[in-house]
Amino acid sequence: MIFHSTKNANLKASLEKAVFNSLPPDNGLYMPDYIPKISDEFLADIENKTFKEIAVEITTTLFENEITRTEIESIIDRAYDFEAPVVQITPDDYVLELFHGPSMAFKDFGARFMAAVMSYFLARSKKEIKILVATSGDTGGAVAQGFYKIPGISVTILYPSNKVSEIQEKQLTTLGHNVTAIEVDGTFDDCQKLVKEAFLDKELAEQFNLASANSINIARLIPQSFYFFSAYAQLKRLGKPLVFSVPSGNFGNLSAGLLAYNMGLPVEQFIASTNLNNAVPRYLETGKYEPVASIETISNAMDVGNPSNFVRMVRFFGDDWNLVSEKISGFFFDDEQTRKAMREVFGSTSYVMCPHTAVAYLGLVEYRKKHKSDFTGVFLSTAHPAKFIDLVEETLGKSIEIPERLKSLLEIEKVSVKMKASFLEFKTLLMSKLV
Fold first, then answer.
1. pLDDT, tens digit (0-9, with 9 covering 90-100), for 397-418
2. CB 84 within 8 A of CB 251
3. What confidence tens digit (pLDDT) does each residue in 118-176 have?
4. pLDDT reading at 90 higher than 90
5. Which domains does the chain carry?
6. Widest Cα–Cα separation across the chain
7. All residues at 6 or more sequence positions from 369 whose CB lies less than 8 Å from its CB, including other chains
């Protein structure tokens, strides 16, 4: 499979190069030269396929001959020992639960696949690489778990100080070994900017083989398409059009859904549901993209003022706003609306949502108000609600159970390197091999 830069279609890369370089040299993003279709025969029988079988078929279709099907089966088997079930919430609406992996967040799907693919290529090349990743919450924990103790890979995770939950922070600061956490005095946008600057720095490029595990990396994006197909497989029997409401921050999740759609997944509509960091919903309304400084909200993993994957999202439609806004609806919600949704759903169904999942639910509710057509709604979860235990319990007014794998983290002391949002300071740390 060949990829090109979103800034210059003549800048090409193989799958291996795109995975390890993360960004093209012109600071664009890698996109497939073309998107192959899933076979009609597979879609016709998809309801009888397991999650792993779906993942293998999608990967084989996309990678073509770059990795054999047998090797892809091994990669998928290594990456996934968990599922993505849909759970009915109302007669016509379902939540797609994406928190059954080791870090209990949807980022496990991308991080574990990427780790397995990188490990496959590294075993062939005998290289060593340094992963740099910025996190607004769940990415860090998923990457830390996915790459922990993998030979030839060290991981440096940047996260904004005091802007992630305690459990999220513990997931990325308590592993040690080949995982280092950097606590940045700033926002997620600052962390993301530092990572991007590092990839463009010639001196760092000469000293290290740098790679990113953020959704800017195409190997993070591809596997997130698996669960869109899986949701369709589970709900196909209903015979209704599907509408997906996607909680959106950096817009990798929605871009993965669009990849699935372009591969042939039948989707009636996508909903971009955000908190007050609403650059994309405003773009969908006006046609003008105006990123702003991020705003702190209770759905912190979505506090992204300038989403990196916006360019991918619109590129799927040839940068045509009319086509983008026809297929994607956008809504945004404040913290009070988010809390109210958490309380209402719990009160009527006893289902506990994290704040990000609640934003996705709200987007689906808002879309239903405007469209009376008969469809099945699917809103995507992001993380187990216990990862935001204080906020969830305060909002619902009751205690919720913490899974043992999260509870045990609270007793471990965090270890992080603190720094200002300064690229010079970050580069000095990297060059001195302190991280």
1. 999 999 988 888 888 899 999 9
2. no
3. 989 988 877 788 999 898 777 788 888 888 988 888 999 999 999 888 888 998 899 98
4. yes
5. 83-106+221-396 (3.40.50.1100)
6. 60
7. none
Residue type at 95 in one-letter notation: V
Task: Quote the tokens at residue 73.
Answer: 């089966």
Token pair, residue 229, equals: 């197909």
What is the spatial distance between Cα 208 and Cα 196, in angstroms, rounded to a whole number? Answer: 15
pLDDT band at 300 (very low <50, low <70, confident <90, very high): confident
Tens of pLDDT, residue by residue over 268-279, are 999 999 999 999
Residue type, 389: I
Q: Apex CA 191: angle with CA 163 and CA 149, to 5°?
A: 90
